[in-house]
């Protein structure tokens, strides 16, 4: 398939590119700093761009079979709208170019998975560190849900840099109100790529944990 990856210089995005190429997909990655991609591959196209600039996405989206987003940032302590604005631009470019399949990472703990990142996140990390980020993620999800795309919102537990596993748990009720469940970025990428030929979670919000 022809895939557009957003966030390809990040932890999960790098895995999406690597595993996607291994599966034989043709990958286009829109990245702010192409120099951060340290390898080349005949099936990998790197475009310099920024999700906050709609024109960056117009050309990139054309002719793709699906878009996979691992967009994120670390500006936790300021009120930002990067995730929601960037995602709005992605949705708009996809809608305009009739690209329907959108697979996007948000997080457990958002909207109807509230409190499902465990007590530590619920009482400490989210209110004291991730509050603005989670407010923006919540808006990001709502924009996706309102779209006419064939979307899947993937809500991981706490991310690690561990190895890819294939026996992870996923579904609409995973997560814990007490414990913080983990999942590796490599496993999240595997799950996202597996959604490309699977209709189970179209217009659904599966969580994913070890
Ligand atoms: N950490 C956790 O425990 C956890 C738990 C659940 C969910 N998540 C979510 O999972 C997702 C992936 O996490 P991660 O740690 O793999 O991400 P990450 O390493 O922070 O990577 C984020 C990616 O987004 C890109 N990006 C940021 N702003 C951009 C813009 N304006 N235009 C284009 N690209 C932009 C970054 O590009 P640059 O390289 O240029 O900065 C980077 O490639 C995030 O949404 C995160 O919130 C994380």
From TrEMBL:
Name of one Pfam family that matches: NAD_binding_10
InterPro entries under this entry? NAD(P)-bd_dom, NAD(P)-bd_dom_sf
Q: Which Gene3D superfamilies match?
A: NAD(P)-binding Rossmann-like Domain (3.40.50.720)
Domain named NAD(P)-binding: residues = 7-198
Superkingdom of origin: Bacteria
Q: Does the keyword S-adenosyl-L-methionine apply?
A: no
What residue intervals traverse the membrane? Answer: 117-135
**CDD domains reported in the protein's UniProt record:** BVR-B_like_SDR_a (cd05244)
Record carries keyword RNA-binding: no
Give the UniProt keywords, A-Z.
Answer: Membrane, Transmembrane, Transmembrane helix
Question: What's the protein here called?
Answer: SDR family oxidoreductase
Species for this entry: Arenibacter arenosicollis
């Amino acid at each position: 398939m022809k895939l557009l990856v957003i966030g390809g210089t990040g932890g999960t995005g790098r895995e999406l590119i690597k595993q996607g190429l291994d599966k034989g997909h043709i990958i286009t990655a829109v990245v702010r700093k192409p120099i951060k991609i340290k390898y080349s591959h005949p099936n990998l196209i790197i475009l310099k761009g920024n999700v906050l600039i709609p024109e960056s996405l117009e050309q990139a989206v054309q002719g793709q079979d699906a878009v996979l987003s691992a967009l994120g940032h670390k500006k936790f302590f300021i009120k930002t709208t990067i995730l929601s604005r960037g995602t709005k631009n992605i949705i708009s470019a996809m809608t305009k170019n009739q690209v329907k399949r959108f697979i996007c990472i948000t997080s457990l703990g958002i909207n109807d998975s509230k409190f499902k990142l465990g007590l530590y996140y619920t009482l400490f990390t989210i209110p004291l560190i991730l509050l603005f980020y989670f407010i923006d993620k919540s808006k990001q999800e709502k924009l996706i849900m309102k779209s006419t795309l064939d979307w899947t919102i993937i809500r991981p537990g706490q991310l690690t840099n561990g190895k890819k596993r294939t026996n992870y748990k996923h579904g609409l009720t995973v997560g814990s109100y007490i414990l913080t469940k983990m999942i590796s970025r490599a496993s999240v990428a595997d799950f996202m790529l597996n959604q490309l030929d699977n209709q189970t979670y179209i217009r659904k919000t599966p969580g994913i944990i070890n």
